[in-house]
């Protein structure tokens, strides 16, 4: 049986490095239960551990974490060990929290995972699973940019210097034969590093001509009149590339392997639930976004954003290695030694028990 890769379909109407529905009219209604994410009375703790601290971004590219939290699927696997959640808006702050022990396990993009691993000389984290692919687009002002060649000379936003989308855009520019200074963003294209929260306003004001951004920012720009000029998935073999990984603090993995396995079981079961219940999963993700950020996404943003993201248990390790090479080529990273960044043993144990095929670390796993 192949590893699950779920395309998040909408059956009704994605840095170094976004809801209770129904009455408000955004998408279908999420299942409601105030007790889903709470520890069941009398439940047994795993390894006598009181809690596990889990971090993620309030982004649709972290759909597994959003849905697993909202539906209580992680807590169900953890029994009497409480799942405590923290939200982050940037990869570096999540890596800092992991290093400090403020979180134990996190959902994060490939660039901050690579940077966190290399800066600690391979001593602080491991990637223990995949979570999402896709959900990144180049959206432009169709009045100013009608073809890919028209991007030259324009102002294009990315979320942050050296973040996953920034590296991808710089690599695309280089492959077009254009020159840009990676640090300043100046050259044949003006790369404007802009926080995703303010990118739609920057687009509306005309201060940028487009943006290479993850969901739901890309769909927010489309709702403002932007046009998708390029879907990054089209640049990758099989249209798959890692956008979100699951990482763990190495000391936590060593001391609490059964807890890590429980979280990974929750992730695998969440991805299966998303595949089997696409509309409910979309609503659940939006409900958790409302709980985390204060408001849900409107249908015209939620539906196309959700459709463009795939959840996956596979970390797509070969694409992470390629993304590191892109950062090196852009001058943002010295050639890293990524051997040992993955420990997929716990995930493959969980997958085997679930009747799924193992996933591969592309030669970058622990010995």
Q: Your description of this structure?
A:
Helix content is 36%, strand content 17%. The protein has helices spanning 63-70, 73-78, 91-100, 110-119, 164-175, 199-205, 217-223, 250-255, 257-276, 278-293, 299-307, 317-329, 345-353; strands at 5-7, 51-56, 82-87, 105-108, 125-134, 136-140, 155-158, 190-193, 210-214, 227-231, 242-249, 309-312. The strands form two sheets. It has a seven-stranded mixed beta sheet, with helices on both faces. Strands 8-7-9-6-10 form a five-stranded mixed beta sheet, with helices on both faces.
Summarize this structure as a short list of keywords or feature phrases.
5-stranded mixed beta sheet, 13 helices, disordered N terminus, 367 residues, 7-stranded mixed beta sheet, globular, alpha/beta, single chain
Strand ordering within the main sheet: 1-12-5-11-4-2-3
Q: Overall pLDDT, averaged?
A: 89
Largest sheet: 7 strands, mixed
SSE ordering:
EEHHEHEHEEEHEHEHEEHHHHEHH
Total DSSP helices: 13
Question: How many β-strands, per DSSP?
Answer: 12
Spans with pLDDT under 50 lasting ≥5 residues?
1-34
> How large a portion of the residues is in β-strands, by DSSP E?
15-25%
Shape: globular
Radius of gyration using CA atoms only: 20 Å
Query: What structural category arises from helix and sheet content?
Result: alpha/beta
């Amino acid at each position: 049986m192949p590893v699950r890769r779920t395309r998040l379909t909408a059956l009704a109407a994605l840095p170094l490095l976004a809801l209770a529905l129904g009455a408000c009219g955004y998408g279908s209604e999420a299942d409601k239960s105030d007790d889903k994410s709470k520890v069941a009375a009398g439940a047994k703790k795993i390894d006598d551990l009181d809690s596990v601290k889990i971090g993620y971004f309030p982004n649709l590219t972290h759909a597994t974490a959003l849905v697993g939290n909202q539906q209580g699927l992680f807590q169900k696997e953890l029994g009497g060990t409480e799942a405590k959640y923290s939200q982050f808006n940037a990869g570096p702050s999540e890596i800092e929290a992991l290093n400090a022990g403020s979180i134990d396990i996190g959902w994060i993009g490939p660039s901050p995972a690579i940077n966190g691993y290399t800066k600690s000389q391979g001593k602080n984290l491991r990637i223990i699973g995949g979570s999402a692919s896709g959900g990144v687009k180049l959206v432009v002002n169709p009045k100013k940019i009608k073809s890919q060649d028209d991007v030259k000379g324009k102002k294009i936003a990315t979320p942050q210097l050296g973040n996953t989308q920034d590296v991808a855009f710089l690599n695309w520019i280089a492959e077009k034969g254009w020159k840009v200074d990676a640090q300043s963003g100046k050259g044949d294209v003006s790369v404007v590093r802009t926080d995703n929260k303010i990118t739609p306003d920057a687009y509306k004001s005309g201060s940028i001509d487009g943006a290479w951004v993850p969901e739901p920012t890309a769909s927010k720009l489309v709702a403002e009149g932007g046009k998708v000029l390029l879907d990054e998935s089209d640049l990758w073999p099989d249209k798959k590339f890692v956008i979100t990984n699951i990482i763990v603090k190495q000391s936590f993995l060593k001391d609490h392997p059964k807890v890590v396995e429980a979280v990974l079981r929750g992730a695998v079961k969440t991805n299966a639930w998303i595949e089997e219940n696409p509309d409910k999963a979309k609503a659940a993700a939006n409900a958790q976004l409302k709980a985390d950020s204060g408001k849900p996404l409107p249908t015209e943003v939620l539906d196309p954003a959700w459709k463009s993201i795939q959840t996956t248990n596979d970390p797509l390790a070969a694409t992470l290695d390629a993304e590191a090479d892109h950062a090196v080529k852009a001058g943002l990273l010295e050639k890293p030694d990524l051997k040992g960044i993955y420990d997929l043993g716990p995930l493959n144990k969980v997958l085997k028990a679930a009747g799924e095929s193992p996933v591969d670390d592309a030669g970058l796993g622990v010995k």
